[in-house]
Design brief:
single chain; 200 residues; mainly alpha; 0% strand
């Protein structure tokens, strides 16, 4: 799959549910939820519940991924490819550089969404276009080094699913890297929110 096609897919994978669930909750990213709370655009009292729901949703999503590819697990020998269906991995493993990439990508994401007024950035179908375009651009610009998690629930939750599911011939879940796509996005989200407060 071409890199730009992958980024377009991720863009719409984020933009479409952001639109579909805009009437009651369209946040699927703990780093974004924390960032919007820091920016004063989301109530802190709701943050813990949202994060729990986001993380559980990611695990359930991981189970559906496992079921979708059920016939493929036994005939696929590449353990890294199996893990890669669930979570991210760096092109070159360098923890400071990997952390910085996730930090910058998520800081840009949170700053941009906060500056646009929150997740409900446009009425109707406009929200799909705006959010999808933002994810697409961030993926093209910063996605190569780490696979751009930008979302702890997108990486840690499916990684947990990978660890606990009976996937035929799977390897380890690469826990030594797992902290990067969690703490990088959270730190970046906070930094992006603080920059928003400073600028606006």
């Amino acid at each position: 799959m071409k890199f730009e096609n992958k980024n377009a897919g991720w863009g719409f994978a984020v933009g479409l549910p952001a639109y579909l669930f805009s009437n009651f909750s369209n946040q699927f990213n703990p780093a974004l939820t924390i960032g919007l709370a820091v920016a004063g655009k989301f109530p802190w009292a709701q943050v813990p519940g949202y994060i729990v729901a986001q993380m559980l949703g990611g695990i359930v999503g991981g189970v559906f991924v496992w079921l979708t590819y059920l016939p493929h697990w036994a005939v696929t020998e590449d353990k890294a490819a199996k893990l890669g269906i669930f979570c991210t991995a760096p092109a070159i493993r360098n923890y400071p550089a990997n952390f910085l990439t996730e930090f910058l990508a998520t800081a840009t994401l949170v700053f941009s969404i906060a500056a646009m007024g929150g997740v409900k950035v446009a009425d109707g179908m406009g929200s799909i276009v705006v959010v999808s375009a933002l994810i697409f651009v961030l993926g093209c610009a910063l996605g190569g080094p780490t696979g751009y998690a930008m979302n702890p629930a997108r990486d840690l939750s499916p990684r947990i699913a990978h660890a606990i599911l009976p996937i035929a011939g799977k390897g380890g879940s690469d826990w030594s890297y797992s902290w990067v796509p969690v703490f990088g996005p959270v730190a970046g989200g906070i930094a992006g929110a603080l920059l928003f407060v400073l600028v606006f």
